[in-house]
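Bug report (template v2)

What were you trying to do?
Predict the complex of my protein with calcium ion.

What happened?
Run completed; filing so the output is reviewed.

Input:
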Amino acid sequence: MNGNTEQGVAGQEEISVAGGEERMFRMICNTSSSAILYYNFQSGLVKTLANWKSFFDIEVKNEEDFEKIYGCVEKQYVFSLRELLHAECRGLAGDSMVAALKGSHIWVECEAVVKYDGEGRPVEKVIRFKDITKFKYQDEELAYLAYHDVLTGLYNRNYFVRHLGSFIQRASESRKKVAVMFLDIDDFRKINDVLGIIVGDEVVQQFGQFLGTFRGGETIVSRFNSDVYCMGIYDPPDDPWEERSVEGIYRAIRERLRKPFIISSGQELMISVSVGVAEYPEAAKDAMELVNCAEIVMFKAKSGGKNAIQYFKVPILDDFLQNASIENKLKEAAFHENFVMYFQPQYRVRDGKLRGAEALIRWKDDDGNMISPSVFIPIAEKNGAIVPIGDWVIEESIRIYAGWKKKYSSSLILSINVSAIQYKREDFVGKLTDTLEKYGVKPEEVELEITESVLIEDFEEVTDKLLVLKDYGFKISLDDFGTGYSSLSYLKGLPIDTLKIDKSFIDTVISDYNTRIITESIIHMVKRLGYETVAEGVETKEQYAYLKSMECDIIQGYFLSRPIPPEQVEELLERVDDRRNCAGNVLLC
Ligand code: C2E
Ligand code: CA
Ligand code: CA
C-alpha cells in the first residue's frame, strides 16, 4: 500500500456511511487483521476501528490519548511513531514505519494516509497498524543464514572475511595486529569414508561449537567449508600465556582434543587438527590474502606430519608460490618440446666396464629455465601428472636405448625410475611390455628403480607385483636405500636384484665413522643376500677407492660421469666398440 494517497482508506470518502455501504464498511473492518486509527483534523474526532483490541489494550478517544499509544511501543520507536501520528502534511514524516510492541514479540508496520481538501489542508488521517511479525522473523532468518554456517552457528566464510576486513581497517589506523588461525581437521576424509558423512557432520558440528566458545572480545570464528575453520583475533596479546593469544587458543584446542567427541550413536572419536597462523601486517595487508597465507602455512603443518601449528614464514610462501607456478607449467608442458632424457653411466668396480645407465628426466620450461626433477617429480606425483610423464619416460628412454642397441654391440642395462603411483596402476606392466615389444628390447635389459615408499604401503601386494615383473625378466633395484623406513629385515625375500645405497651415506662415508660402519654392513649383508650394490653420488676419488676396497659392485656418480645427453652416451659406446679402451678403464686408471 502506498503511503499518502488522495483516495482515503479502502476508497471510502467518509468515516460515517449509511445503509448498505455501512454494512460493507463494517464487514471490511471486522475481517481486517489490522488495527485502524481514524483522526479528523477539523472535528478532532478520533476513532479506533477494525482489529484494534488485539493490538492495543487501550482506549483512544481524542488526540491526547495518542500518548497512550506511544506507551505501547518499545522506547526506540516512540519518536518515529509520534512523527507519523502528528504529521499533517505530506513529506513531513515517513509514510510508514516498523515498530515492536512493548513486552511482546509482535512487530507492527504503521502506515499513514492523509486526505487533503482542495486548498491542500489535511482533512482526515488513517493510521493502519499491521502485524508483520512473521515477515520480520523471516527476514531475520534470511539475514542469519546470509552470515552464518547452519551446521555450527559460526560465521560463514563471506561474513568472516568482511568482518576480518574491518579488523584490519581498524588495526591499520591504530597500529595493531590481527591474527588469523586457519584450522583443518586431520584425515577428515577418512572419518567421512569409514564412518559416514552423518558422523562427519557431527564431528564438524561439535568441534565448531567448541571453537565457538572463543567468540567475543574481538575474536571471530567461522566455518569455511567441510572441516575447515578460521579464527580472527584483533590485537592478539604477545604473551603466549594469555588466553586470547594464538598460543593460548591453540593450547586450549589441544587440551580439548585430548578427549574424544561423543557421537549421538555413542561412538567416541578422537581427532587432531593442523593449524596455520598468519598475522596482519606481517603476512598480508588484506583480509583474503591473510586467510590465504594462513591456509598455505597450514598445508606446511599437514605435510610436516599433521597435528601441529605452523606460523607464517616468507620462505614457506615462496616455496608454495614456486610450486604453484611449476604445477601450472607442468599442466601445459608439451613432452616433446619441454622434456628430454639424460642418462648417467654406471660402472662395474670389478673390471671398470660400463654396466648401464640410469635414465633421468630433464625439464626446460617455456622460459628456458631448467627445473630439477627433484622439484617437479614430487609435484607431478601429487597432481597426477606423473602418469603421462612416467609413460613418456618409459617410451622415450626405451626408444633411445633401442637406437643404441642397433648401432653398438655392447649390452647395457637401462635403469628407469618408477614412481609409486605409476607402479600401482593396473595398466603399468602392460604398457611397459608393449613398449618393449614395439622397440624390440628385452625385459632382461631393463632395470626398474623403485623406492621404499612403494614397499611400505602394502608389502605383500607389492611383492607379488614385483614377482610378476621378475617373471617377465625385468631387473628390480631398490633406490635411495637408507633414507626412508629402511629395515634390513624386510630385505630378506624381497624379489630385487640391486640395492642402491643413497648418496647421503656416500657423502660422509670417509669423514664419519658411524656411516662407514653402516655402509660396510649394508654392502656385506646385501652380498650375502645375493643382490648387487650400487653406490650412488660418488663424487671423489677417495670415496671411489674406499667403496672399491669394500667390494661394492657398481658405482654411479659425478666422479665417473654426470648425467649426459644420449649423444654423449653414444660416444662412450663407440669407444667401447672400438676396443681402444673401455670408458671405465679410461676413467678409472
Ligand atoms: P635418483 O633416482 O636418486 O637419481 C639420482 C640423482 O642423483 C640424480 O639427480 C643425479 O643427477 C644425482 N647424482 C648422481 N650422481 C651424483 C653425484 O655424484 N653428486 C650429486 N650431487 N648428485 C648426483 P636428478 O637427475 O636431479 O634426479 C633427482 C631425482 O628425481 C631422482 O633421484 C629421481 O628420484 C627423480 N627422477 C629423475 N628422473 C626421473 C624419472 O624419469 N622418473 C621418476 N619417477 N623420477 C625421476
Ligand atoms: Ca634412481
Ligand atoms: Ca637414488
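What did the reviewer find?
The longest helix spans residues 386-407. The radius of gyration is 40 Å.
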